[in-house]
Amino acid sequence: MTAPAAAAAMVGRPTRGDGGRAAIDVSGLAPGGFGHRGLMWWGTLGIVFIEGTAFALTIAAYFYLRTRNAQWPPDAVAPPALFWGTLNVAIQLASGIPNHLAKKAAEHVDLRRVRLWLVVQLVFGVAFNAVRAVEFLNLNVLWNTDAYGSVVWLLLSLHTTHILTDFLDTAVLAALMFFGPIEEKRFVDVEENAVYWYFVVAAWVPIYGVIYWAPRLI
Fold first, then answer.
1. Could you tell me where in the chain the CATH 1.20.120.80 domains are found?
2. Collapsed DSSP state (helix, strand, coil) of residue 18
3. How far are the Cα atoms of 14, 48, 67, 125, 200 from residue 165, in angstroms, in the given order?
4. Comparing C-alpha atoms, which of 79, 69, 67, 35 is closest to residue 192?
């Protein structure tokens, strides 16, 4: 590029390319933007709204079914055991710490710290998926027993789908960060994965309240 064209590009004015079309040299820009400056952030936010709506509709269905039954849970079914669900609340809330640190490391393009905190996140992911398997065994009802069993299993299964997919996404990102290719855009991916992890953890709190405390309080 000629000196006048370079100067024009630096101040943001379009230049004329070989074909006579207006052009701006963007070769020096970063491959991706962090936070709201990147399209990935807005895409993740859209997914959060869509999936949050699905959770809200399922919770609404739970309380609608409650109004249709004089006794809840029906058929003298005992409420789910508190211990495992509460343990998973603690594990998932604690996972927010390495998740936040991975996000900050990604924003600073710090490969060593990104690798470290992604591995720690995976350890937490294994823990709360393992506890989730035990949760299903302690619901005291099957999905096909009655409407109560169906909606409780649906709520827990929806959230389980999210923690499994986010765990797999984190595992893929960790593999890329260890084995390459190491690209700057992958650090943006780590940041957006952290934003989604926040959502998965935050969503569990009201779902936990509905599954474990609503049958005890209403």
1. 35-217
2. coil
3. 44, 14, 33, 10, 10
4. 35
Sign of the CA dihedral 159, 164, 165, 170? Answer: positive
Q: Which residue has the tokens 């399209």?
A: 39
Please compute, for residue 182, the number of CA atoms within 13 A of its CA located in the half-sphere on the CB side.
10
- Residue spans of the chain under pLDDT 50: 1-12, 29
**pTM of the full predicted structure?**
0.79
* CA–CA gap between residue 77 and residue 149 (Å, rounded): 9
Q: What is the pLDDT of residue 8?
A: 44
Tell me how crowded residue 208 is: count the other CB atoms within 10 A of its CB: 21
Structure token pair of residue 118: 């992604």
- Coil, strand, or helix at residue 23? strand
Tell me the HSE value of 197 on the side-chain side, using a 13 A CA sphere. 31
Where does 35-217 sit in CATH, by number?
A: 1.20.120.80
The single-letter DSSP state of residue 75 is T
